């Protein structure tokens, strides 16, 4: 039973490492080059209405 748990843990950690490797900060570079400006403006707008959201969003 313990060997199955160890094998499962090993497989899950391998899959999570592979999933993390797919992240790219330039993902929207071609499809939506202005995404950073849009997100920044909306965050400023949301935080001006509810400044208490700044902490949880970090």
What report would you give on this structure?
The chain is mostly helical and 58 residues long. It has a domain at 25-58. 66% of the residues lie in helices and 0% in strands. The chain has 3 helices and no strands. The chain has helices at 2-20, 35-49, 54-57. The protein is elongated. GO terms for molecular function: peroxidase activity. Keywords: Oxidoreductase, Peroxidase, Signal. Residues 1-20 form the signal peptide. This is Peroxidase R15.
Number of strands: 0
The dominant shape is: elongated
Content of β-strand: under 5%
Radius of gyration: 19 Å
Number of helices: 3
Structural class estimated from helices and strands:
mainly alpha
Signal peptide: 1-20
Keywords: Oxidoreductase, Peroxidase, Signal
GO molecular function, one term: peroxidase activity
Protein name: Peroxidase R15
């Amino acid at each position: 039973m313990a060997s199955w748990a160890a094998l499962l843990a090993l497989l899950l950690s391998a899959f999570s490492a592979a999933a993390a490797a797919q992240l790219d900060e330039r993902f929207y570079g071609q499809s939506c080059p202005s995404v950073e400006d849009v997100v920044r403006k909306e965050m400023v707008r949301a935080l001006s209405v509810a400044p208490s959201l700044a902490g949880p969003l970090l």
